[in-house]
Design a protein that fits this description.
Radius of gyration: 34 Å
Helix content: 25-40%
Distance between the termini: 100 Å
Bound molecules: 2-(butylsulfanyl)adenosine
Length: 669
Amino acid sequence: MQELRATLDHHARRYYDYDDPEIPDADYDRLLAELRHLEDAHPDLAEPDSPTRRVGGIPNPIFAPVVHTTPMMSLHNAFDLVELKAWEERVQRRLGGRVVGGYTGEPKFDGLAISVRYQQGRMVQAATRGDGRIGEDVTGNVATISDIPHRFGPDAPATLEVRGEVYLSLPAFEALNQRRQARAEKPYVNPRNAAAGSLRQKDPAVTAERGLSFWCYQLGAVSGELRLTSHIETLRWLASLGFPVNEHAVRLDDLAAVEAYVVDFEARRHDFDYELDGVVVKVDDVDLQAELGADAKAPRWAIAYKLPPEERTTTLLDIEVSIGPSGRATPFARLAPVFVGGVTVTTATLHNEDQVAAKDVRPGDTVIVRRAGDVIPEVVGPVSANRPDGSVRWVFPRCCPVCDEELRRDEGAAATFCVNFYCPRQVRGRIEHFASRMAMDIEFLGEKNIDRFVTEGLLRDVADLYRLDFDAIAALEGFGDVSVANLRSAIEASRSRPLNRLLFGLRIPEIGQANARLLASSFGTMDRIIDADEAELADVDGFGPVIAAAVGTWFGDRRARRLIDRLRAAGLRMEADSVAVEEPGAPQTLAGKAVVVTGTLAGFSRQEARSAVVARGGKSPGSVSSRTFALIAGTDPGAAKVNKAAEAGVPVIDESGFGQLLETGELPG
Ligand code: IVH
């Protein structure tokens, strides 16, 4: 018990005094529950200043002390619905079997409690909770929080203390940490600590920059007339005075309604732009609250239902590197299994070399693991106190764990890559991408099959798909006539996908779906893309020198050209949709000419106009240059294009002239 008390004292100091905890709240709660359990079993060994009886932290001497005439209490916790039910039964027993008659449910905001004192409706003082009896004077800092009214009236009671939670919204937290990182300051580990650190500043100007917010949820000391009979009525009254009351604070008629509310919040805990760590349930009737009273630490009329923790500690077994489909080498943590945020986590990404270095996590460390919503699990950092002796910093491996070739990180880049173009993981990655729905959409060729075919040596690149040995596949375990026939016809069907799909499927750097469409519509055929120089590529609407260089380099590689030749030989379509579908065999009147279109035309959409140019052998880039043959200007033409045309001496023609241009390839006279 002494050991537990010392441990809890240590962590309370880290949490309250340094705003820099070493363990997640849930671990603290579990240690506290263990101590409480022991103290209950051995009342003779209980101590008056045990952490089980303490509220909050010890006030910091840089702030003037403030005595809370009405103490600021803590809350007892329930960790599941059984404990919630047990609380109701205790309440009812205390009330001699009377039915409670109604509760309120509110989110349990994860910030820090303050009490704001108003005299005749004017803010005179604001204090932190401190140890519950003596808090810290943070009036100047609280005055900078725009959510909190400085005055209200006119029928304000002589004295009124409004209590609630100061918190940092998630966007404000992200922004703050970004600013801190930019200044090479240590980021806050979570919004709660950031809020506490921001409020307990010597200089209110610093607090003001942080963007703190406030929810009120309780009254403290009150003098003068106030006729409020229920908690929900109190909240409504506070809202009417201009205090921020959370919209999810509601009245709940019975425990069944409370349970439904709790379950609902559990599902929605990530739908808000602030953190909550539970739900607070309060007996609604103010007279019943008074009758129930409080114990040394918390009121009996309220309970905090804690949501399951989303941060836990576990052992970092090892750091390994996984190779992605593009060859990217990503370090990840192998963890001793830990149940966090509703799932058992055994691995968590560490993103890249710099992240591992910044967190300085090492195999053997005890680490904090966080999981928020459907977000992938994250290693927050090590618990430095638990680091085993003799541990050394982790170094990024030099060889690919898949193919054993070199791993390289380019200067200035964050990511590390396997340099081997034929690394089996990359081979599989390229084929997976090629076959994916948005690319060539080859059904029945899932990751598993690709993996098998690559392993069996049946598949080395995407062109191999079109000469697959189906007899060999039929001989593989798990394949029958039907599955082979399905696969064969799915691959067959992919031969006629339009050019933009094929371009996207080839995984050309910078060429996602949208850029693939632009490339296809601007040039019309694979050959014209191959023949285009970088200046022509850069002329494509929305492209610039970077994309043009990436595309030019890719097509300039002999391996790429050979691959395209093999795909062409396999009968894949090498044309854009518009060319073949709309105007087969249109006369090539505009061969080699660039015609730019701007403004609205009556007879064509912009895309149709550009396709018409491409169908006649021309190009239709998105911007005007000295190489442009003509600019077609409809109504409301783009000023930049018209100006550029004037500057570069490019003829500007209207829609009627465009018709003639398409037909003859000549500029109208
Ligand atoms: S009522 C006497 N309502 O939780 C009861 N507290 O673990 C006073 N908290 O110190 C608390 N949301 O900082 C109440 N809706 C809510 C709350 C809330 C967060 C905090 C508060 C309190 C702590 C106890």
